Amino acid sequence: MGTLTPKTAKSLCQRSANLKPHKFIYAVILGMTFCLPPLVFSQDTLTVMTYNIHHAEGMDGVVNENRIAEIIKEVDPDFVALQEVDSGTVRSFRTDQPGAIAHLSNRVAYFGHNLNFQGGGYGNVILTRDSVSAWDNVFLPSRYQGEQRGVMYVRTDVNGRKLLFLATHLDYRSKDVERLASVAMIDSLIDALKISNVILAGDLNDIPESETVRRIRQNIGLQAVQRAGGQKTVFTFPADSATKKIDYIFTSDDFQCIGYAVLHEPVASDHLPVVTRIMLP
Fold it and tell me: What is the pTM of this model?
């Protein structure tokens, strides 16, 4: 399957049950776990999206959170992993991007603040339809100065089953020492949380044949949804002329991939969004 428009992907990943929209709630993650009544889905499938938004700066050099939110609204996913998100930085005009994108897409935002930058924060975001039972942001091993990486997670219930959704953005350098250390820590985190239904999404900065991806499959035991869907590799970066696949969604083995798409959106960011529809175990 090749690249699709957000509208076509929404049709491909159409949810099997409609949920009522909920009020916007925005949570900033400060290395702590907070608890709320759990979100419970009354559906048999989930639509999941991952998108490196490049602080909402598009290939045209314009910073525009509205474009990102419109893509999310078109796809209408249950869970979204966003990477390279600013909050209150100079380059993004002091905009609270997690809050703005969540508000515009009618989602709940959980912000993993990984480093201070230009008077604000920078990190990963998870968007959900409603508040979740618990969430946290965990720093990953850092072998270089300048950019602290993190893995963020939310825990919730879906049809009475506990679900763990994780979002991350790994190191970009050619040597994979930090990426492999990060995979090992993510493996330990999943083990510690003791939840068998797992979804991991994000920008791994590595190709499908890499040791990074191999260890996620073999050590953590997660499958890439593109492989599960039987599709050929569809590239995700750079957005206007993609030549590499570095953005992924992985699931534990019990999930079944019933739809997968890399969206044709060559302007809004320097990455393409990845969307999958999966059937619950």
Answer: 0.86
